[in-house]
Specification:
Layout: H1 3-8, H2 18-29, E1 33-41, E2 44-50, E3 57-63, E4 81-85, E5 93-97, E6 103-107, E7 115-120, E8 124-130, H3 137-150, E9 153-159, H4 167-176, E10 182-185, H5 194-199, E11 204-209, H6 215-223, E12 248-251, E13 257-260, H7 274-278, H8 280-286, H9 303-310, H10 315-357
Parallel strand pairs: 8-9, 8-11, 9-10, 11-13
Antiparallel strand pairs: 1-2, 1-4, 2-3, 4-5, 6-7, 12-13
Domain EngC GTPase: 120-265
Binding site for Zn(2+): 289, 294, 296, 302
Keywords: Cytoplasm, GTP-binding, Hydrolase, Metal-binding, Nucleotide-binding, Ribosome biogenesis, RNA-binding, rRNA-binding, Zinc
């Protein structure tokens, strides 16, 4: 057992394993220390690592500038595993990031097509939905597509079950739009459903949802302590204030971690297959279409059109599916355009450099004889 592997053993409860150790071997030879990024601020981060003397976990402030990147998706994020130089001055420094097994990436707000990583290396994406107001099924579908695209397993948690009498009926409605995902009803206040929830959370979990969904209260209940501040929701519309302002990793008492994320007003998708996985029921119906390239509009023998007509497939769900598909197509076109523009810019720079380094050969009339 290498010294770096031994030093990382306390991190095994938070996801460190043999594959991570093998990937880290190169950095261990350089004298770097394995660490888990628990919080990221501008140019700096908090990392969780094993104290070389006591062997206990401690939090260290580190500089992230050496691994900064123009592409936001490649920048350090909460949940990343890192190689840290503890001897660097004036602060320990994140010298490298290990590969990500999963990453929750959403489109940044506004008209840009850039991505933003919400959390990395999580096993479960827990989608918190408050029962204090009528759940927005379309928004839940967006969160599910985001979760499936990450590579992690989605889990829908209907919170504040103590405030309603029809929680089980609502859960049944949500289950219909969440194929392949578990749907639980819980109350962090009374403890209802919390044991079942804990059983669904091995390893690392990212907690996402709107402000007011009860994410911070849920985090505190799972952590068994007051780890996150809690704000009251507005009684008029049950919307909450932004309690969590940054993504923060909270260790859980029985092992594993939960990453609490700020409330998301916009859930912009960043392309990929998440939409198809979130709407697996529609994909299953489409397999019965007469034509493989059926557009589900006017072709004869369209199973999707038939399901819409007989009510097997709700029109609302089909509309939601088509809307998210269009967003994915827009992201893909913008991404392709950005790649093409970057390629053209580099080629232009290379051509300009070549022209500058070459000089024209003048004709010497004395050599024409």
């Amino acid at each position: 057992m290498t010294s770096s592997t031994s030093a990382a053993l306390p991190l095994s409860a938070h996801g460190w394993n043999e594959d991570r150790a093998a990937e880290f071997a190169f950095y261990a030879e350089a004298g770097l220390t394995p660490a888990l990024i628990s919080r990221v601020d501008r140019g700096q981060c908090d990392v969780l690592l094993a104290d070389p003397e006591s062997g206990e976990l401690r939090t260290v402030r580190a500089d992230t500038r050496p691994v900064g990147d123009p592409d936001p998706v490649k920048c350090p994020c909460t949940g990343d595993w890192a190689a840290v130089d503890l001897a660097a001055q004036p602060l320990p420094t994140v010298s490298a990031l290990l590969g990500r097994s999963t990453a929750i990436v959403r489109k940044t707000a506004g008209g840009r097509s850039d991505g933003q990583v919400l959390a990395a290396n999580v096993d479960t994406v827990m989608i918190a939905v408050s029962l204090a107001a009528d759940p927005d099924l379309g928004r839940i579908e967006r969160f599910l597509a985001l979760a499936w695209e990450s590579g992690a397993v989605p889990l829908v948690v209907l919170t504040k079950a103590d405030l309603v009498d029809d929680a089980d009926f609502i859960r049944e409605d949500v289950e219909k739009i969440a194929p392949g995902a578990a749907v639980l009803t819980v109350s962090a206040e009374t403890g209802e459903g919390m044991d079942e929830l804990r059983a669904h959370l091995p390893g690392a979990t990212a907690l996402v949802g709107q402000s007011g969904a009860g994410k911070s209260t849920l985090t505190n209940a799972l952590a068994g302590r007051h780890a996150m501040a809690v704000q009251e929701t507005r009684s008029v519309d049950e919307k909450g204030r932004h309690t969590t302002t940054t993504r923060e990793l909270i260790p859980l008492p029985d092992g594993g971690v939960v990453i609490d994320t700020p409330g998301l007003r916009e859930v912009g998708l960043y392309g990929g297959e998440g939409v198809d996985l979130a709407f697996a029921d529609i994909a299953a119906i489409a397999e019965r279409c007469r034509f493989d390239d059926c557009s589900h509009r006017s072709e004869p023998g369209c199973a999707v059109a038939a399901a819409l007509e007989d009510g097997t497939l709700p029109q609302r769900r089909m509309d939601s599916y088509l809307k998210l598909q269009r967003e994915n197509e827009w992201i893909a076109s913008r991404s392709d355009a950005r790649v093409a523009a970057e390629r053209a810019r580099k080629w232009k720079a290379v051509t300009k450099s070549m022209r500058g380094s070459s000089s024209p050969t003048r004709h010497d009339p004395r050599r024409t004889r």
